[in-house]
Amino acid sequence: MSTFLQFDVQKNYDQEIENLPPRLLELRTKIHDANYLDNAINRIAYILSKNLIDNSEELQLNSEEY
After folding, report:
1. pLDDT in tens, 38-64
2. Nearest to residue 13, comparing CAs of 23, 25, 26, 27?
3. b/e per residue, 27-58, with b = 16+ CB within 10 A?
4. Residue 21: DSSP 8-state
């Protein structure tokens, strides 16, 4: 890649970063943190499991329709 093209790509990236909300910038940093990802995956699994358990009767009724 030419030096000019690299500079242009970096310039565009820097401009995009400036326009992002602070929360999104924070999450972009956290996505590279293994502990953060492990905790996020565990939270998602917990919430999904809880919803499946809480709605198990509804799920059973819906499966009988098919």
Report:
1. 999 999 999 999 999 998 887 776 666
2. 25
3. eeeeeeeeeeeeeeeeeeeeeeeeeeeeeeee
4. -
